[in-house]
TrEMBL record:
Residues the record lists as binding NAD(+): 100-103, 194-196, 220-222, 238
Cofactor(s) in the UniProt record: Zn(2+)
Deacetylase sirtuin-type domain location: 1-255
Keyword NAD on entry: yes
Name of the protein this chain belongs to: NAD-dependent protein deacylase
Recorded domain comment: 2 residues (Tyr-66 and Arg-69) present in a large hydrophobic pocket are probably involved in substrate specificity. They are important for desuccinylation activity, but dispensable for deacetylation activity.
Residues the record lists as binding Zn(2+): 126, 129, 154, 157
Residues binding substrate: 66, 69
Co-factor binding details: Binds 1 zinc ion per subunit.
Protein species of origin: Winogradskya consettensis
Domain of life assignment: Bacteria
Positions annotated as active site in the UniProt record: 118 (proton acceptor)
Length: 255
């Protein structure tokens, strides 16, 4: 299937949802989770780092690991895929970006208020009273992925501050999930970019769009379980495929 077919769908669309996963940030140098060898979950034990039980058992290990990730992400820059998505948003005002990523590269590329389904590395909060905590300044120290770091104490109740991300076994932020489902049900095109489509309920978002009759374009170098619901599967890296797709949009100030 070709970019031309995808471009035809994009040109007709008025309400677009762009649904992204770790693959959209891969070409910014941020590791994905499940790619063989390079994925974070190939190198680290998710159960020991990304669950509420892990934080309770060893807060310094978990907090240090997320600080390392914040350092890696803080040094990364948006790539051509993030920029292309921001251009779609500028050219088609009814565009909603829904991301599973905890980085801020969509915002840095110019996307306005992307919906963060899995939280953010920049929104720490108290592990007990849930009061927002002040994020540390700057991108952090030299990356050291095994570094333990005692979490700061909450200014209100003294409990340890935790990363503002969703861990395995936790519910997604309800307002974000509801907004994403509503946008998917109402859109006339969904573009899914760089996600394995295996983590629920996030993976429902493209399926909701398809169930409500919207065509789905997928951008991914590899097949995923979402292949079957997609109208067009564009096999390739997001930072190459999306800029090509955006070239099809009519010339506007956005380009
Ligand atoms: P995964 O690591 O599961 O999947 C990344 C996807 O990106 C794979 O399908 C790759 O083939 C694809 N990919 C790799 N490089 C790419 C590129 N240059 N361009 C386009 N696609 C590329 O990441 P997610 O699907 O985001 O959750 O994972 C979903 C959730 O699982 C994450 O939000 C995280 C993780 O555990 C939490 O932390 C709650």
């Amino acid at each position: 299937m070709t970019v031309r077919e995808a471009a035809d769908l994009l040109l007709k669309a008025r309400k677009v949802v762009v649904f992204t996963g770790a693959g959209v940030s891969a070409e910014s140098g941020i590791p994905t989770f499940r790619d063989a060898l390079t994925g974070l979950w190939a190198r680290f034990d998710a159960q020991a780092l990304a669950t509420p039980e892990a934080f309770e058992a060893d807060p310094a290990l978990v907090y240090g690991w997320y600080e390392w990730r914040r350092t890696v992400v803080g040094r990364a820059r948006p790539n051509a895929a993030h920029t292309a998505i921001a251009k779609i948003e500028a050219a088609i005002p009814g565009t909603v970006v829904v991301t599973q990523n905890v980085d801020a590269l969509h915002e840095q590329a110019g996307s306005v208020s992307p919906i963060h389904l899995h939280g953010s590395l920049y929104a720490p909060r108290c592990s007990s009273c849930a009061e927002p905590a002040t994020p540390p300044d700057g991108p952090g120290d030299e990356p050291a992925d095994g570094r333990r770091l005692t979490p700061p104490a909450c200014e209100h109740c003294g409990a340890p501050v935790r990363p503002g991300v969703v861990w395995f076994g936790e519910a997604l932020p309800m307002d974000a999930l509801e907004a994403a489902v509503a946008a998917a049900a109402d859109c006339d095109l969904l573009i899914t970019v760089g996600t394995s489509g295996v983590v629920y309920p996030a993976a429902e978002i493209p399926q909701v769009a398809a169930r409500f009759g919207a065509p789905v374009i997928q951008v991914n170098p590899l097949p995923t379980p979402l292949d079957d619901i997609c109208t067009v599967n564009l096999r390739g890296p997001a930072a190459e495929v999306l800029p090509e797709l955006v070239l099809s949009l009519p010339p506007t100030a956005a380009r």
